[in-house]
Structure formats: structure tokens, C-alpha cells
Amino acid sequence: MSRKKRLERLEEAHTVPGEYPKATEKRRKLIREQAEHANRCQDRFEEPLFEITEEGDVLCAHDGRPVTDPHQTLAEKFYSMEVGLGWEGLVHDEEIQEFFTPEGEPSVGTSFTSNG
Q1: Which residue has the higher pLDDT, 16 or 71?
Q2: Cβ atoms of residues 73 and 80 within 8 Å
Q3: Is 45 left (phi over 0), alpha (psi -120 to 50) or beta?
Q4: Three-state SS sequence of the chain
Q5: Biggest alpha carbon distance in the chain?
Q6: Following CA atoms 109, 66, 68, 79 in sequence, which dihedral angle do they give, to the nearest 10 degrees?
Q7: Do residues 76 and 83 lie in contact, with contact meaning Cβ atoms separated by under 8 Å?
Q8: 10 Cβ partners below 8 Å, 6+ apart?
Q9: Mean local confidence (pLDDT), 17-44
Q10: Which residues, including other chains, have CB under 8 Å from residue 77's CB and lie 6 or more apart?
Q11: What digits encode the pLDDT tens for the residues 60-78?
């Protein structure tokens, strides 16, 4: 499934009942603005948090997932900060986006997802 189709499907699922196309586009514009701001605020040595397509869709840079809610931009920033700072004594597995103890046990309460 193409990214555009996937994004359309996700947006349909997250559309507020009774939300009109104008309101949907307003929400998408807010997401784009927040993503652009977050990318500008990154340290010059850090990778951007978001990719913005020519169509104006916003994707998380590290996993390519579409951003369909304005709250996701802040959640992605916090997630990036937590991974960057690390949790004392915990190991982060990039592939599954989870934290583990040095012994390999899942760390309770420290699992984060980038999409909220």
C-alpha cells in the first residue's frame, strides 16, 4: 500500500465525526506547521524529526509513519529526547523502540511509541 493511501486511510479513521474537509485541511496545516517548527528547533547536528512530502503530508523521519494528529509532533519530540538522553541503566532497542534492562528484560513503564 502506498504511503499516500495509508495516510488517507489513517486520516479517515481519525477524522472527528462530522468534521468537514475544511476542518481536516486546517488540522493537516497545523500538523505541518508544528513539524516544520520542530525541525527548525533541532540542534544543527541532529537529524530532522519529520519529513514533509510535496503533497504536504507529514511523516516521522525515523520510521516513516504518518502524523495524523497535532499531538503526535510533541510526542515525537519527547520520544527523541528520551532516547537521546537515555534512561539510567536501560538499553534502547531501535528496531522495536523499547527499553530493556542490561539483562535483557523489558523495562516496565518505559516503552514509548512515536505516534502518541
Answers
A1: 71
A2: no
A3: alpha
A4: CCHHHHHHHHHHHHCCCCCCHHHHHHHHHHHHHHHHHHHHHCCCCCCCCEEECCCCCEEECCCCCECCCCHHHHHHHHHHHHHHHCCCCCEEECCCCEEECCCCCECCCCCCCCCC
A5: 51
A6: 30
A7: no
A8: 66, 68
A9: 87
A10: 38, 49
A11: 998 888 998 899 998 888 8
Whole-prediction pTM: 0.61
Decide which of 98 and 74 is more confident: 74
Instruction: Classify residue 76 by burial, with Cβ atoms within 10 Å: 0-12, 13-18, 19+.
Output: buried
Cell numbers describing residue 5: 493511501
Quote the cell numbers at residue 34. 508544528
